[in-house]
């Protein structure tokens, strides 16, 4: 799917509208569906593609999408998201199995984190460094190739984080992590 340009069919006014539309569509997805994983990936790529359509040329901004699928049998609580580099809030886009009130990623559910950088200029590149902390692991994501993109299990937990995807291009990065 990556690389295939998806042109938004409706008018988009700003970055929050891009995220909101994706949020609404992903919120309808359930792990009970046989196309759940494919639909999640399609929505993530559609989000990145819409971003690329809106922010290109001299108005370019890097973007990063990091998705988690809870393939374990335990609840995973999202404790914090920290943007160390970038220029936006960290938006979260959960599937309908996510417990939003308590920040719990239930078994079988998924969540996508999306953020973007500041426009690059002569004294800054506009890169992104996002950290996601849960009760079981901590993940760091960069919008460029780096060994600092990693997942570390918190001592006392026996879950495993497997990177299903690490796609990085000039202006965007897309990651999928399976928690087992």
Describe what is shown at a glance:
It contains 2 helices and 10 strands, in the order ααββββββββββ.
Describe the structure in your own words.
- The protein is of the alpha+beta class and 180 residues long.
- The protein has one domain (15-179).
- It contains 2 helices and 10 strands.
- The protein has helices at 15-26, 36-54; strands at 63-70, 76-85, 91-94, 104-105, 110-116, 129-134, 137-142, 150-153, 161-168, 172-179.
- The strands form 2 sheets. A 5-stranded mixed β-sheet has the order 3-5-1-10-9, covered by helices on one side. The protein has a 5-stranded antiparallel β-sheet with strand order 4-2-6-7-8, with no helix packed on it.
- A hairpin with a 3-residue loop joins strand 9 and strand 10 (172-179).
- The longest helix has 19 residues, at 36-54.
- It is globular.
- The mean pLDDT is 89.
Dominant shape: globular
Roughly how much helix do the residues carry, as a percent range? 10-25%
pLDDT below 50 for ≥5 consecutive residues: which ranges? Answer: none
Mean pLDDT: 89
Q: Which structural class is indicated by helix and strand composition?
A: alpha+beta
Largest sheet: 5 strands, mixed
- Note the run of SSEs as H and E: HHEEEEEEEEEE
Distance from first to last alpha carbon: 25 Å
Round the Cα radius of gyration to an integer and report it: 16 Å
What amount of the residues lies in strands? 35-45%
What is the number of beta strands?
10
Number of domains: 1
Number of helices: 2
**Strand order in the largest sheet:** 3-5-1-10-9
């Amino acid at each position: 799917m990556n690389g295939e340009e998806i042109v938004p069919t409706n008018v988009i006014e700003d970055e929050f509208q891009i995220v909101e539309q994706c949020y609404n569509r992903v919120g309808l997805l359930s792990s009970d569906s046989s196309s759940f994983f494919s639909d999640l990936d399609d929505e993530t790529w559609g989000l990145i593609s819409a971003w690329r359509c809106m922010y290109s040329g001299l108005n370019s901004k890097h973007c990063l999408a990091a998705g988690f699928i809870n393939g374990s049998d335990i609840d995973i609580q999202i404790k914090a998201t920290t943007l160390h580099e970038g220029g936006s809030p960290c938006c979260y886009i959960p599937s309908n199995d996510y417990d939003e009130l308590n920040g719990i990623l239930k078994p079988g559910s998924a969540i996508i984190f999306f953020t973007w950088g500041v426009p690059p200029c002569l004294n800054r590149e506009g890169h992104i460094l996002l950290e996601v902390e849960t009760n079981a692991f901590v993940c760091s994501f960069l919008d460029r190739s780096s060994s600092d993109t990693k997942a570390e299990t918190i001592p006392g937990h026996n879950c495993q984080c497997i990177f299903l995807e690490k796609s990085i291009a000039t202006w965007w990065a897309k990651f999928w992590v399976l928690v087992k």
